[in-house]
Amino acid sequence: MSLMHLSFYSAFTLSSLGLAFHRTHLISALLCLESMMLSMYIILSLWPVENQTTSFTLTPVLMLAFSACEAGTGLAMLVASTRTHGSDHLHNLNLLQC
């Protein structure tokens, strides 16, 4: 495994650990999700170059489109929860109270 692969895998792992352990604010969870998507995008865009194939060149573009949709939905949820609950703490967001 090259140093480049190790750095992208460790970035994905650290962002998933950040998502798992630092769940106090919604914005921190969204930032961890975006860093996971960014590392997956970079890995998927470098994969066809390393394998010298052209069949997987559309995959990073689809990943980027889904990532943009996820970011927009997350920010809409952040604004809606801040307007209704007054803060972006995740312990305020209980699905059983809706």
From TrEMBL:
GO terms for cellular component: mitochondrial inner membrane; NADH dehydrogenase complex; respiratory chain complex; transmembrane transporter complex. Belongs to the complex I subunit 4L family. The gene is ND4L. It is an enzyme of class 7 (translocase). This is NADH-ubiquinone oxidoreductase chain 4L. Keywords: Electron transport, Membrane, Mitochondrion, Mitochondrion inner membrane, NAD, Respiratory chain, Translocase, Transmembrane, Transmembrane helix, Transport, Ubiquinone. Core subunit of the mitochondrial membrane respiratory chain NADH dehydrogenase (Complex I) which catalyzes electron transfer from NADH through the respiratory chain, using ubiquinone as an electron acceptor. Part of the enzyme membrane arm which is embedded in the lipid bilayer and involved in proton translocation. It holds the Pfam family Oxidored_q2. Its EC number is 7.1.1.2. It comes from Scolopax rusticola.
